[in-house]
Amino acid sequence: MGPALALARRGLGRVWPNPAVGCVLVREGRIIGRGWTGVGGRPHAETEALRRAVASGGARGATAYVTLEPCSHAGKTPPCAKALIESGIGRAVIAARDPDPRVDGRGTATLEEAGIAVTVGVRGAEARALNAGFFSRIERGRPVVTLKLATTLDGRIATHTGASRWISGPVARDWTHALRASHDAIMVGSGTALADDPELTCRLPGMADHSPVRVVVDRRLRLPLTSRLVRDAGRQATWLITLAENGGPRLDAYRECGVEVIEVGAEGTGNVDLEAGLRMLGGRGITRLLVEGGSHLAAALVGGGLVDRLEWFRAATLMGGDGVPALQAYGVDAVDQQVRFARIDVRSAGEDLWESYVRAE
Question: I need a labelling partner for 170 at 20 to 30 A (CA). Which of 60, 99, 184, 354 fits?
Answer without folding.
Answer: 184
